[in-house]
Design a protein that fits this description.
98 residues, mainly alpha, 0% strand
């Protein structure tokens, strides 16, 4: 079960990081400064909130990424938006039940 959760969590995280980077680079290269600033601000605020509150989805699943790693990546997932996070939680819940 732990390996399934680890694999699902890492797959979702990689997809989130790639999509976030793609979105930021697209905004940067196309002159979408407003989009770039809003997305960077969302990431910074989300990561700071996770660091201050101790929110760590990885730790909840028993995936140790150090004191800060899990919190930072949790912040990135949260910055992607509530719909994205809801899909992620649904996937993890389904994987845990299997």
């Amino acid at each position: 079960m732990t390996q399934i959760a680890l694999t699902a969590m890492l797959a979702v995280t990689v997809e989130a990081l790639v999509e976030y980077a793609k979105s930021l680079l697209g905004a940067l290269t196309q002159g979408g400064w407003k989009t770039l600033i809003v997305q960077l601000l969302a990431a910074v605020v989300s990561v700071l909130l996770c660091l201050m509150s101790g929110a760590d989805l990885f730790g909840v699943l028993g995936i140790e990424l150090g004191d800060i790693g899990g919190r930072v990546l949790t912040g990135v997932l949260i910055a992607r938006g509530s719909n994205y996070l809801a899909d992620f939680v649904s996937r993890i819940t389904t994987a845990k039940k299997s």
